[in-house]
Design a protein that fits this description.
single chain, about 325 residues, alpha/beta, Rossmann fold, DNA polymerase, domain 1, 2 domains, 6-stranded parallel sheet, 3-stranded antiparallel sheet, 10 helices, about 15% strand, disordered N terminus
């Protein structure tokens, strides 16, 4: 999907592998890995050994983009968790769900019966359109039918689902504590830039709070974790794509939603951020590469570390001053 940038003044942009001398103020980029920045009307050569910095002129060397320094930084940088901090879904959450289904047979009249449920890769991709693990399981059973020996009343089914989800979270946390799922490229860098510049950082997720806290503390370390606020799970009654969790984060952090930049990876997360009135950058993940992100302010394949850096904190500030649309 091409990225298009709209700016009120002449702008210069470039894809990661093409250079030009002079470009118009609106340009379609065929490469979604490209950084989108605007400033003067000249592009110079490239230096991939340098990270993205903001300077007085837009230039690029070996695919690393530099642009005019922004006088604005976000008041808060808000990250989704799954798919943004860590690509957890296919080989983390999905595996933990399936292990939970396998080890939790239903008991009826003293007879055990397996749930008989396995979520394959494609099915789980569809289920991810539903925010929240408990909600995901409930929607699945409502559609395909509840197991024969499953509870019959709504209240009993809620307890049944809650029990499955609690066990699933325990199994998932084991994966995180063993560090079997790494942080995505550039996450540590961008968080350090934000904390180092007095920008508030939070993680806003539909996942269980314990699971999100485990990711933050185990993979980002205790020093960073102490400075990162977590809004997760059932902290709000309505989950993404409802904006409630982002509005709660802005209110708790004492910042205006319009001064926040969100990093998301999914369509429902993007919808939540935009409904909250926030700027949103999408970093595509394994399950979301083909989703429609036409409403995003910028789209990349990841945040990235030098020399493959896609964007940095200064770029986030630039987005608050310029309009970028896909």
């Amino acid at each position: 999907m091409a990225l298009r940038v709209v700016s009120s003044s002449p702008a210069i942009f470039s894809s990661q592998r093409r250079a030009a001398s002079v470009l118009p103020s609106t340009l379609t980029l065929p490469n979604t890995n490209s950084s989108l920045l605007s400033s003067s009307s000249a592009i110079s050569s490239i230096d991939r050994t340098k990270s993205v910095t903001l300077r007085s002129k837009t230039s690029r060397r070996n695919g690393v983009v530099t642009c005019s320094a922004s006088s604005v930084l976000p008041k808060a940088l808000l990250f989704d968790c799954d798919g943004v901090l860590v690509d957890t879904e296919k080989d983390g959450h999905r595996i933990s769900f399936n292990d939970t289904f396998a080890e939790n047979p239903l008991v009826y009249n003293g007879i055990q019966k397996e749930l008989g449920v396995t979520w394959d890769v494609d099915l789980y991709g569809e289920l991810l359109k539903i925010g929240g693990g408990k909600e995901r399981m409930t929607a699945y059973f409502n559609k395909v039918g509840w197991p024969e020996n499953a509870p019959k009343t709504e209240e009993e089914r809620k307890e049944f689902i809650a029990g499955l989800h609690k066990r699933k979270t325990e199994l998932f946390m084991v994966l995180i504590e063993k560090k079997l799922l790494p942080l995505r490229p550039g996450v540590e860098k961008l968080i350090d830039q934000a904390l180092g510049n007095g920008v508030k950082v939070a993680v806003c997720s539909t996942s269980n709070e314990k699971a999100v806290s485990a990711i933050v503390s185990c993979l980002l370390g205790p020093e960073r974790a102490e400075q990162i606020q977590i809004f997760a799970g059932d902290v709000v009654p309505r989950k993404k794509p409802d904006p409630a969790i982002y509005l709660l984060a802005a209110d708790t952090l004492g910042v205006d939603p319009s001064s926040c930049v969100v990093v998301e990876d999914s369509g429902i997360g993007l919808a939540a951020a935009k409904a909250a009135g926030m700027t949103c950058i999408v970093t595509k993940s394994g399950y979301t590469a083909d989703e429609n992100f036409s409403n995003a302010d910028a789209v990349f394949d990841c945040i990235g570390d030098p020399p493959e850096e896609r964007f940095d904190l200064a770029f986030c500030g630039n987005l608050l001053e310029k309009q970028y649309v896909s």
